[in-house]
Amino acid sequence: MSQTWEDDALCAQTDPEAFHPRPGGTSRPAKKVCDRCSVRPECLEYAISSEQRFGVWGGVSQQELRRLVQARHGEAA
Questions:
Q1: What mean pLDDT, rounded, does the chain reach?
Q2: Which among 12, 27, 64, 68 has most CB atoms closer than 10 A?
Q3: Residue 1: pLDDT above 80?
Q4: How confident is residue 2, by pLDDT bands cut at 50, 70 and 90?
Q5: Do the Cβ atoms of 30 and 11 come closer than 8 Å?
Q6: Is 70 exceeded by the pLDDT of residue 72?
Q7: Are 35 and 27 in contact (CB under 8 A)?
Q8: Cα 47 to Cα 58: distance, rounded to the nearest angstrom
Q9: If we measure between CA atoms, which residue out of 43, 47, 23 comes closest to residue 33?
Q10: Mean pLDDT throughout 48-75?
Q11: Nearest CA among 37, 40, 71, 45 for reference residue 58
């Protein structure tokens, strides 16, 4: 069985609620985990390429992620 970046993701070892903050909540706790994660670049690329809409991915908030996805689409146009 081959190992994927998800197998090494620190978020898999922490409370998933931190990566899905409630409206008006903070993404800081999740971002702190991401800052220490060795697969952060792979996670962020996955989130952008699969157009994830919810949660903290690769150390960026939902708002930041939306901007990155939109920018990627702008590049492709």
A1: 91
A2: 27
A3: no
A4: low
A5: yes
A6: yes
A7: no
A8: 8
A9: 43
A10: 92
A11: 40
Average pLDDT, integer, range 29-58: 96
Sign of CA dihedral 22, 51, 60, 56: positive
Question: Does residue 77 carry a pLDDT above 80?
Answer: no
pLDDT, residue 76, reads 58
Query: Which residue is listed with tokens 């909540």?
Result: 25
Angle between helices 28-35 and 40-49 (to 10 degrees): 120
Q: What are phi and psi of 61, to 5 degrees?
A: -75, 170
Helix/strand/coil (H/E/C) assignment for every residue in the chain: CCCCHHHHCHHHHCCHHHHCCCCCCCCHHHHHHHHCCCCHHHHHHHHHHCCCCCCCECCECHHHHHHHHHHHHHHHC
Furthest-apart CA atoms within the chain: distance in Å: 41
For tokens 């908030």, the residue is: 61
